Amino acid sequence: MKLKKIKQPHYILNDYLQINIDFMKKTLLSFLLMGLLFQAFSQKLVEATLLETRSQDELNLIFTLIGGTANNGASAYKVLYETPDTDGTIDTASGLVILPILDNAIAKPFLTYQHGTASDRDNVPSRLPQEALLVYYFASQGYISMAPDYLGLGDSRRTIHPYVHADTEASAAIDLLRATQQYLDTEGIAYNDQLFMTGYSQGGHASMAMQKEIETNLSEEFTVTAASHMSGPYNLSGDIIGSTGTDRIYEFPSYVVWIFVGYQSVYGDLYTDLATVFQPEYIESVEQFANGTITRGELNDILVNQLTEVHGASFSNRMFTESFLNDLRNDPNNPARIALEDNDVYDWVPSAPTQLLYCMADEQVAFTNATFTDSIMNANGAPSVTSIDILSEGSHGDCVVPATINTAMFFAQFLEGNVTSTIAVDPSLAFKINPNPATQYIRIAFPASATTATHIQVVNLQGQLVQEQVIEQPTTIAIDMTNQPSGLYVVQVKSETGFWIEKVMVGK
């Protein structure tokens, strides 16, 4: 049977065409909207403003006081960028980015520095306080150096900073890194994929939180080259809960208040009102701090004076109601306890080389944070985590400079061979140390490829120069360490072509 071709009515064809046109329009619109949403999501940079430029000579004058040297000048920028608040809304945060003055075509590594506890919302890196010199120091070594102000500080619209809140400490730094990459791309400034991270005090907790977030959830976007966390409260819950049972003089009670008030702004369930947490005489000043009418520094002065007047000393546990402390200590489901444990950053396994620097006499952050974290991470199977007492008798303030210099030396071991400062890592200087460990003398054997005059420095873990030699022709030389105490030392060799670093253990 011959099939008869039936002509389809025009109105059916028109409807079919119209339906497909409408579908295509909607599909195209959907793709367009998705593209705009992706662009909005991925765009972090708002603006970057040049603050100042310091020459290499100027930085050397500054760093001479701390025993460091600058390999290049640097320019400081205030960067505004977008990052999520704890409720998911987008905030415009601020941070400091310092770029080394080097050829734009030279690919440079990234370094994030997380700052310590701020006395007020303007005592942050983008305002160039004294702590910003640490960011300058790393930039002067050739790193693209970044320091976020954190949420609730600097230009962030948030009323209160969520103090030692791991998630936002990490996201503020990571989004600043993304924004910095966007700025560098627009300016044609080259960078490589090396990423170093460090931070001091609260910043030690923040840099550990950043490392954990990247290695756990963002490993396809970033790779941590090495990390050096300095004097940070990694075991937050253990420290806070452990200190509530007995009187202990603590001259920084505002830190504890800030933790609970800040967490309340994030979790919302730590307490129903301040009277359930604090004794009546402390509520007014805590409320003023929570509302932003007094600074953290002002709150601390008020609390220390009140505690000393009423109890004879600054016993921080006396600020709290006994019922709150009992529940915090004994109830595993206590909301404040859960919040503290949620922000512990010790129980995981870093894959990048990681060191935890501390000073045993630290009066603000117990050194056991580092030793405990080291033991947990190594028990978990971490391949390269170590804790180091950088200055046993050093206070929290004393520890800053030696820890920073040690961190710079630690990071230098992992730099790629490309130029990252006015000098470069030079494999032709790859000397060997024998014996290692050593007792009295260390012998440095240079390779045949080392042919130019070299400057040899031996530095202890406090960043202090203990031995120095200049030799015209590299060969095997001996350096006397007889009068130096037992411990770990760094040997750095510099020539016109670059530098090389090795570690040596000296034992008596």
Please summarize the sheet with the most strands. 9 strands, mixed
Give the name of the CATH superfamily of the largest domain: Alpha/Beta hydrolase fold, catalytic domain
> What is the count of distinct domains?
4
CATH architecture of the largest domain: 3-Layer(aba) Sandwich
List the secondary-structure elements in sequence, H or E: HEHEEEHEHEHEHHHHHHEHEHEEEEEEE
Count of alpha and pi helical runs? 13
| Spatial strand order of the main sheet | 1-2-3-5-4-6-7-8-9
**CATH hierarchy, class of the largest domain:** Alpha Beta
What's the number of extended β-strand segments?
Answer: 16
Task: State the helicity in percent bands.
Answer: 25-40%
**Which radius of gyration do the C-alpha atoms yield?**
28 Å
Q: What is the general shape?
A: globular
Low-confidence stretches: 1-21, 23-41, 418-422
Could you tell me the CATH topology label of the largest domain.
Answer: Rossmann fold
Distance between the termini: 108 Å
Beta-strand content bin = 15-25%
- Average pLDDT metric: 88
Structure at a glance:
The chain has 508 residues and is of the alpha/beta class. It is 35% helix and 22% strand. The longest helix is centred in the N-terminal third of the chain and has 33 residues.
Please give a structural write-up.
It is a single chain. The chain is built from 13 helices and 16 strands. The protein is an alpha/beta fold and 508 residues long. α5 links the parallel β6 and β7 (226-230).
Summary keywords:
508 residues, 9-stranded mixed sheet, 4-stranded antiparallel sheet, Rossmann fold, 13 helices, 22% strand, alpha/beta, disordered N terminus, 4 domains, 16 strands
